[in-house]
From TrEMBL:
The keyword Transcription applies. SMART domains: HTH_ARSR. Residues 20-113 form the HTH arsR-type domain. One of its GO terms (biological process) is response to arsenic-containing substance. This is HTH-type transcriptional repressor AseR. It comes from Nitrincola nitratireducens. The keyword Transferase does not apply. The lineage of its organism: Bacteria, Pseudomonadati, Pseudomonadota, Gammaproteobacteria, Oceanospirillales. SUPFAM superfamilies: Winged helix' DNA-binding domain. One of its GO terms (molecular function) is DNA binding. Keywords: Arsenical resistance, DNA-binding, Transcription, Transcription regulation. InterPro entries: ArsR-like_HTH (IPR011991), HTH_ArsR_DNA-bd_dom (IPR001845), HTH_MetalResp_TranReg (IPR051081), WH-like_DNA-bd_sf (IPR036388), WH_DNA-bd_sf (IPR036390).
Length: 138
């Protein structure tokens, strides 16, 4: 279910998609985000998987919830991610309005560096407490 901000605007994918067009997702911000390992791996995981909840990203990257949430919040503020709430879960995906060249950089990085996600992908597939809805992309 998508909530509503105090302004009356929906809180979800649509309300967040504006960030890139407002200049928050420019080249400098994009590359600064890629320079941090957890942010880079989070973006690549989301490029590969489509949509993931915080607990899945925590498991894949073997990091704590506060650390992952902090990085995801930064990526969201930068306009690179959008999130939605489904019950107690917060699900993240790449912003569908991300500039094409940014999507191309992520895609090329995945193709040229498959080793980056070998261990995170293994951890994700071995995750024993993975929520049912988390294993499918929306």
């Amino acid at each position: 279910m998508i909530g509503v901000e105090k302004t009356g605007n929906p809180v979800g994918y649509e309300a967040q998609r504006q960030n890139l067009s407002e200049g928050a997702g420019d080249a400098l911000m994009f590359y600064k985000n890629l320079a941090e390992e957890n942010r880079l791996l989070s973006l690549l995981l989301l490029k590969q998987e489509g949509e993931l909840c915080v607990c899945e990203i925590m498991e894949a990257l073997n990091q704590s919830q506060p650390k992952i949430s902090r990085h995801l919040a930064q990526l969201r503020r930068s306009g690179l991610l959008v999130d939605r709430r489904q019950g107690q879960w917060v699900l993240y995906r790449l912003n569908p309005d991300m500039h094409t060249w940014m999507q191309d950089v992520l895609e090329r990085t995945l193709i040229e560096n498959p080793h980056l996600l070998e261990e995170p992908s293994r951890r994700l597939s071995d995750m024993s407490t993975r929520p049912i809805f988390c294993s499918t992309s929306a």
